[in-house]
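Hi support team,

I submitted a single chain yesterday and got back a structure, but I'm not sure I'm reading the token output correctly. Could someone confirm the output below corresponds to the sequence I sent? I've pasted both exactly as they appear in my results page.

Thanks,
R.
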Amino acid sequence: MEPVPTVVNKLKDFAKLSQDFAHGLLRWHQNSNRRSPIEILKRLQREAFSDIMKLRDRQEKVERLLTFYKTSKGSPFQEASTHVKGKVDVLGALVIMNDVDEQKYDAIQRSGIRTGIDARLTFETGIRESDTLVAEFIASEKGQGDILGGPLSLAKILYAAHVSDWFSAVAIPMGAQCRDVGVPTVSPQERGLTHYSEFGPPLLDQHNGSAIGIMVRKSNVVASLAQFVSGLGMQVNSAGVARSLSTFGQVVWQLSGNTRLSCLGVHRESRPPGQNVSLGALALPVSPFRSNRFSDTSVEEDSPTNTRKHNLDGSIAVMLNTELDESTRIGAWIETKNSNHRCFQWAVTMRDTPEDEEFGWGLTVGGMAQGPKTLEHFQVETFLNLKFGKRFKLQPALLYVKDGATQFPALMLRSNWSL
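Hi R., thanks for writing in. Yes, this is the structure output for that exact sequence:
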């Protein structure tokens, strides 16, 4: 029989081993629970929630900062967006005649064929809520310069301010035309192949330098009034500077939902080049103490031997436009000069050029008359409109002209690419 101390020691060792075994089982159970998928997902969820809350706090701080800058006063260009439009328009003509003398050359000029390359790049920026700033650059223009064009140059600057629903104003420091300050009656994209096939008289396309104008709307009537000044940017030469002041006015009546009647005119007062001296760009001498609208810059002009006078000129026109449907339009206009009311130009145009179809056509009949019974110039123009995609179109056209004793047909081809 073993002694009592030995038995007690064995019992203590057994108890210690049992305790160590129990602790080991407990730690293994805890470690297995930590490595289970459910516990891992719970831990990842807690970490993701913490990250999301931090990102939300940062987003709120950024939104508060943006709100502060939007509500604070600053430049009107802070939220401006600029739209860029480009256009390359090429028109060629094959005039069928034996030879070209001075009389036939004048007949071609009076037909209004605008051959050449017209390349333009327009930047349009919205300012504040409803104002617009437009800058137009040209590389070449039909009828001017080399056919291959030249370097890109600034041709027009226009600022239009829409003050309210019934009142708006426009300022054009350079490159102003009557069309820019007039009431728009058709889309500016619908340009004709000649002066006669335009939806408007030739006076709308005259270049008049700088301009400022206003437009007022009331019910079914829209009226515009503008003042032009030309010759401000010209340099002094041997002949002096040709300068003129022009006043343009237009009233448009909405006869029905799709029919508009327009009465428009321009009055021009100019001086011969020898009577003006350039004071620099955008500088015009005006004398408030004389009835003369232009200040005299030379003592010789007041002498009895110098009897130069101002040249008064201008035009008045009536225009009628109607829309038969979404794509078919009919336009007619008649224009006469203030210097000779018996001589007038006229044209009637019909077009069917749908925007969402690849085929369209147009027909124009126009001419020039000296009195009600004398037709000095007459021409008929027809064209087809072929679209290739949304940015390129081709317009083959046929023109017949009878000018006095001269008559000839002409084949024209126009291509237009826009971006």
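A quick pointer for reading it: The helical segments are 4-34, 37-71, 102-110, 178-181. Let us know if anything else looks off.

Best,
Support desk
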